[in-house]
Amino acid sequence: MKIVIATDSYKGSLSALEASKAIERGVMKALPDAETELVPVADGGEGTLDSLVAATNGRKVEVTVKGPLLEDVQAAYGILGDQETCVIEMASASGLCLVDPDELNPLITTTYGTGELIQKALNDGCRKFILAVGGSATNDAGVGMLQALGMRVFDEDGKPLGFGGAELSRISEINTEDFDSRIADSEFLIASDVQNPLVGPDGASSVFGPQKGATPAMVELLDKALSSWADLVEIKTGIHLQDKVGAGAAGGIGGAFQAFFPAKTKRGIDIVLEHTKMAEKLSDADCVFTGEGQIDYQTASGKTPMGVAQEAKKHDIPVFVLAGSIGTGIEVLYDHGVTSVHSLVNAPMSLKEAMERGAELLEVSAEQVMRTFLGALKYKG
Questions:
Q1: By the 8 A CB rule, do 129 and 145 touch?
Q2: Model-level pTM greater than 0.90?
């Protein structure tokens, strides 16, 4: 019996590879002679770079860039096995994971380091890019990234401006004379499942600002700043970003790519499934295990378990989802290939304990699900 294990990371607890190995141990306890295939995956957030590099036998290039608060951080970009495609994970340079919770402040966090990653990859000869934009700590519309790539922004007195979401409202001039000319000769595929516009009640600031540390007053200020920036972009490029689908991704960096890069957007999970050759791996599988930390109604918007289940459904393969926690609205997943959803928490415990025991809990859950599946097959047979 062949079992494909294609799980995302369990943030704060296990990487996708660690989680996959834990599930494999549980499966093997129930079925020692099982054939397992581990395919660590991601959906455009943290882990996307590692998943694509591993799947294609690529390599990582370590670099030092500026973090969200302009501190030096160690980041990396990936060169895939084709030796042509560069993968950049925004979170490694501009991510929430780089900022202490009590220091989160989207008024000042910047995407400058993401721009530095792109520039360093351009210097390395890369012209084909995959940008995974999940997990950002920023709300600066990608202006920091643009500044790192040579774009200059000035206030009404002609003075250069600094960094962060609050600065956007002070910009009165966009100067692209020194914007890196190599960008126009490159290809950019943006891995994102975010459909939100740039501004308004469904925009970047309102929907994602609070998780980046924005208070209600800050959300209002940031939304106005993004709107002001979008007005200038429209004057400069003719592109109306305010309500453009996907422009609100990653604090508005989606809009920067739409306005100033030769870019296309695709669901992150679809990019990963393609590069990991998931369809081929599933073609002769008997069942699939997938999962991540939280499963709820948002999973259906293109998160890893949803993407894996949709692909497995094409082959009529049962899909078991192992979740750190289960929220509301999971019923919709059953219409898209998910067979069942299982929580790892098997006794009263704190979140801290559950995360510390993540590997153990995954192993136990996987064993029990596998035994249930085998029992059902035996009964059916």
A1: no
A2: no
